[in-house]
UniProtKB/TrEMBL annotation:
The lineage of its organism: Bacteria, Pseudomonadati, Pseudomonadota, Alphaproteobacteria, Hyphomicrobiales. This is DUF2190 domain-containing protein. It comes from Fulvimarina uroteuthidis. InterPro entries: Struct_cement_gp24/gp6 (IPR054438). Pfam families: Phage_cement (PF22758).
Amino acid sequence: MALQTTYLDDMPVAYAGMVANTELADIISRTVEDAALPFGKAVTQGTGDKSVHPTTTGDASTLGVSVLSNATENSTVNGYPQGDTAAILIKGVIWVTADGAVAAGDDVTVTVATGAYGTKAAGAGVLAVPNARWETSAADGALAQLRLK
């Protein structure tokens, strides 16, 4: 049996998909329809009732953000497997990995091919996320708080 011999000096501030605070949030449960769903990524309504899939090319809107969970029966540590029940934040504040530099108060967009949130100009392959704002600023690839209203 392997023993852990090294430890971090400081715990990470957060992880992608982690609810950011204790204010009221709306989190719904949906079945992951057709592909593994990473934590902290955009999700879209699936074709079945109460189902979702990772936002991908061709999607015209998003439903919310996948919430980090320890309760999932997954073979990976970073998402929900196909067929699992996923927690989806539709209102509240959540940590996500910024796709490009973001600033507090900026409008939010999502790149449909990756499900990643940023502030890119809406257009082909990039959707504006209505009623969303950045709560905190971050560099490209860093964690930031995203507010969905």
